[in-house]
Each structure stands twice: as C-alpha cells, then as structure tokens.
Amino acid sequence: MESSDYEAVLDDVEKLVRPVVGSGETASYIPALAAVDTSRFGMAVADTEGRVHGIGDWQEPFSVQSISKIYTLALVLAQDGEEIWRRVGREPSGNPFNSLVQLEYEDGIPRNPFINAGSLVVTDRLLTLTGDAYGSLRDFLRAESGDDRLGHSPVVAASEAEHGDRNAALAHFMASYGNLDNPVQEVLDHYFAQCAMEMSCRDLALATGFLARHGVRADGSRLLPVRAAKQINAVMLTCGAYDAAGEFAYRVGLPGKSGVGGGIVAVVPGKCTVCVWSPGIDRQGNSVAGVAALDAFTTLTGWSVF
Ligand code: DON
C-alpha cells in the first residue's frame, strides 16, 4: 500500500471510531492510570520496512502495561528456546487477567504467558537469564523503536506496587509450587517496571515489527526462528485479549495484545504492525475505541489473517 493509502485508511478509521472514543473507564485499580483523559485517541501503522504512518495522538507516550508481556516472552524464547513452556501453558484462560482460581488446580502453572501469573513466570526467567529483566526489555524496546530515551514511569510503577496485593499473591502462590526461581519481591519489581514503560503508538508499532517480519529485528538481525514468531503470534491471537480473546478474534481477526493503559498492538504477518491507543477500557481490560479501530482497520483493508 502507498503512503497516501495508509493515510486515507487511518482517516477513515478515525471517522468511524470517533463516536466511541471516550467510552469505557480508566483502570482505577492502578490509581496513577485513573487520571488519564479518556478522550485521547491515536493510531499508528508500521510496515515491515519500518515506515510509520499515524493519526491523532500517535506520538503521545502512554503506559504500555500488559503489551510489555509480548516482548519479555520474545526475549526469553530468543535466549532459552522452548524451555519456558515447561513452566507456563499456552491455552486461553477464559478468566480475568489477574485471576487466581486456575493456579491452584493446575499446580502453579499459569495458563498462558499473557495473563499476569504467566508473565510473572516469564519475567522471572528473563531475570535469571539476564540479571536485569526490566533493563533488557527497555534496551530491546529502545533499539527496535529507534528512541533511546524510552523508559518507565516510576510513579506508575510505585502506584502498581502500592496496590499490588493481587500480583504479589499470584507470585507467592507460584513460588509455593516452585515455579519462581528468584525472590518474589525482585520479580514483582521488574514486572511493575516493565508494565510502567511509557511508549507511543509509533514506538510500539515499530517495536513489534519483528513479529510481522517473522522474527527479524529492525536492524535485519534475527531475534527468533520463524517458528517462534509464528508461535508468539498464535498465542497473541488466542490469549492476547484475555477473557475477550474470542470476541477480539471475531471482530479484528489478527494476533493482538492489549494493556490496561488503553493500548493494543496487532500484527499483520508479512505486512505491518498496528498500534492503537485510547484509554477507556472495558470490563475485560481492552480499549473500547482501540478494538473498534482495529475492527474498522481490518474491515477496510481486508488485512485480517482470515
Ligand atoms: O499487573 C497488572 O495488573 C497491570 N500492570 C497490567 C494488566 C494489564 O495491562 C491487563 N491488560 N489488559
């Protein structure tokens, strides 16, 4: 697609979703996120060559939250191959992202790497492999987005820590099954920092390019085997929107990953990555206008995987 075509599609998407921008609520369980203005909307598309087009607030940094779970998983798979799948599953949970219930009857093995419990295990492994899980994530995101000022918000991370009883419960519970190797507090600190990364739609669309390029990084080097990139995309499709993954696949038809900051990243393998941000989220934690925008995008372009 030509540049002007991307711009035209983004214009049409924005017109279609305007009426729902502002719907939903911010994530009040993380007080530092509660104050974000729900009338914001931005969207960016990056092609596999790294050309980016955007609309609205596409260059405005926001809290990436659970979108970070894609990259920690990719870094662990890159360094450790299939090992991680002994400690975390890859089936949709059908439960909220911070639910505790399945963990007990499934022996401390989280259903997938995108619910909080699964991501804590992935962060624990990344910490063991690198000695600095958050630092290696941040360096990767800086390199892929080409913005070496990217970092996390200490205010958001502290707010998550202060209201982090549920994540702490998940981590302690898994530790009781021997499914964490590092001290719980250390794993939580890295996890809260990773979720508090601040990036724009532009940054995230670029940083996710390796999944559209079947495992190849922005500089042309290979991060992952083709097969591992396929696997991450598949887990995003089935688990990236939590207990709304079915509805997301039905409406959007792409691998996607949402965060309670209101961002969603989606991948059109072989073609492009799309990131949308609008802070109003629904009960499952997915941006209301974000899902609507991706629905409109795949409908207008015909670029779903189906
Ligand atoms: O741990 C948490 O609850 C948040 N830092 C991340 C949750 C999240 O983004 C779920 N996404 N929709």
UniProtKB/TrEMBL annotation:
Q: What Gene3D superfamilies does this protein map onto?
A: DD-peptidase/beta-lactamase superfamily
Q: Which UniProt keywords apply?
A: Acetylation, Hydrolase
Tell me the InterPro entries matching this sequence.
Answer: Beta-lactam/transpept-like, Glutaminase
Q: Where does the source fall among the domains of life?
A: Bacteria
| An example Gene Ontology molecular-function term | glutaminase activity
Q: Which reaction does it catalyse?
A: L-glutamine + H2O = L-glutamate + NH4(+)
Enzyme Commission number = 3.5.1.2
Q: Where does substrate bind?
A: S66, N116, E160, N167, Y191, Y242, V260
User: What enzyme class is recorded for this protein?
Assistant: hydrolase
One biological process term in Gene Ontology: glutamate biosynthetic process
Known partners and oligomeric status: Homotetramer.
Q: Per its UniProt record, what PANTHER family does this chain match?
A: GLUTAMINASE
Q: What HAMAP family has UniProt attached to this entry? A: Glutaminase
Protein family per UniProt: Belongs to the glutaminase family.
Q: What is this protein called?
A: Glutaminase
